[in-house]
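We treat protein structure as text, and this decision shapes the records that our systems exchange. We quote a single record here, exactly as it is kept in our systems:
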Amino acid sequence: MSTIEPQSADSGLMRVSSDKISRLMDLVGELSLSVSETVQSPDLQGLVLSNFDTAVHRLNMIVREVQDAATDLRLVPIDDVFRRLRRMVRELERQTGKSIDMVIEGGDTAIDKLVADKLYDPLLHVVRNSADHGLEPPAEREANGKPAQGRITLSAAQVGSEVQIIVADDGRGLSRDKILRKAREKGFFGPDEEPEPSALWRVIFEPGFSTAETVSNLSGRGVGMDVLNSTMTALRGRIAVDSVGGQGTRVALHIPVSLAFLDCIILRLGLQLFAVPIDVVSEIARPAPGELLGISAEGGSEMFRLRGKHIPICRLDHFYGTPRIGEADSPSGVLVVFNTSNGAIAVPVDEILDRQQVVMKPLVGRLARVRASWGCALLGTGEVALVLDCERLGAGVTT
């Protein structure tokens, strides 16, 4: 029995198995690699080939268009996920005794189906937390001058090559005192340490972390936000939390539109190649004398002074514990500045090689333990580059 069925005589739509689309995308990735290998073959060196560069440019443009078309085939509207969450709100109202107005915005935003399939459970945890912990009971809301009905807003929008999904409520907000007390009990902060809000909110994603005094079927086990964090890591996404006491909480998820191909800058440090998603690259600079500063008070850490601002330096050879070939501690020729949720970081490299759309493969087995990496990128030269997760790289430098 065929898996392709016409929907109607007029619509022109066909139902295609997602497995077939995934297979097509894999083949497109292999095609891209084969084209690069052929074009860069050493057998072509020294040959005089008329119009070869023009033909190569056209071929690369066609392959890129095929990649984009294959990616579009797997995109679905995020409203497929939002509708399921809307149905759950009625059950949450019954369980909590609260009146909840669910507002949905940007439901037509497109996202990779593989991403959409993994988003429902973590988003459900966030919505449950908003309903159970965030929104106050009707009587308390009225006493505080709020409408009796609480509001949870679920919105999505495409920002560059990412989809931004926001879950916001107009409830009581996160309790800084409770979270800080629990975080100190678990050893995340010292007894006298007063962390910045962004650093404090991050602890709610730690495994088993919960400030609930009782366990219910909605929350209190300390696993919901941990699930969200694990899912976002697997999807190459990041989370940002903002909360104002008495006004509500906002959880923003930033996720790549597609997981199939990744626009990267290829870097070389010694003999190792690295790939970095182009969206996180803020600036590429060649440091002048005096702009690289050593701070012995912080254990020998380094800073890069850029237009009056001091940016922490992360040396990849130190971070991964692998010595460079040659003068390991000599200043590198180029600094690449990455934007992360923890602030900017500067990474010294020897050379910027290329910008290209890469086919990424996950690291498996023992390689899955490699720190601050999304996976490996297969390059047209036959070489392999480590794809850097700049968020985790930044967290290791700034904390």
